[in-house]
Design goal:
mainly alpha; two-stranded antiparallel ribbon; elongated
Length: 151
């Protein structure tokens, strides 16, 4: 049974690992569109108009910055990316239950690159007492399950 920590005045349920992994997969699909628009289009224009190809390290830095902007913007405005909204997930600060700060969001985002690309963070979640990813445990954030929307 999953622990339901008290985050402020409201008791919430931590989101299950399967739901978070499904949201992560959906997020990857959405990010293909984000990168297509913000990465490939500008680089194609630069390449065609000025016949330039930026060095690989600069392209990776650009990807890192674009995706950081995407995630931190959504996490600071409601705690949910588009994929998280679909799966009724919300990122919160473990201490306050509110949206994460910019600094905490940037730390979570940066650590998630290592955590997810090496699969260490996903393997960690199978052994963590709350089934949290490594980057959430290190930063002090949690992904909680939102109640269903009533129409």
């Amino acid at each position: 049974m999953m622990e339901t920590p008290d985050l402020g005045r409201v008791t919430v349920e931590l989101a299950g690992l399967r739901r978070r992994l499904a949201s992560l997969l959906y997020e990857v699909l959405l990010l293909l569109g984000v990168l297509g628009l913000t990465f490939m289009v500008p680089l194609l224009i630069i390449g065609v108009v000025w016949n330039l190809t930026p060095p690989g390290w600069l392209e990776w830095l650009y990807i890192y910055a674009v995706l950081a902007g995407y995630f931190i913007w959504y996490w600071r405005r409601g705690g949910q990316t588009l994929a998280m909204q679909t799966w009724r997930l919300k990122l919160v600060d473990a201490e306050t239950g509110r949206e994460v700060s910019r600094g905490k969001g940037l730390a979570r985002y940066t650590l998630a690159w290592f955590s997810l690309l090496t699969l260490v963070g996903i393997v960690w979640a199978f052994f963590d007492r709350d089934r949290q990813f490594l980057h959430d445990r290190l930063v002090g954030s949690r992904i909680v399950l939102m109640p269903p929307v009533k129409h």
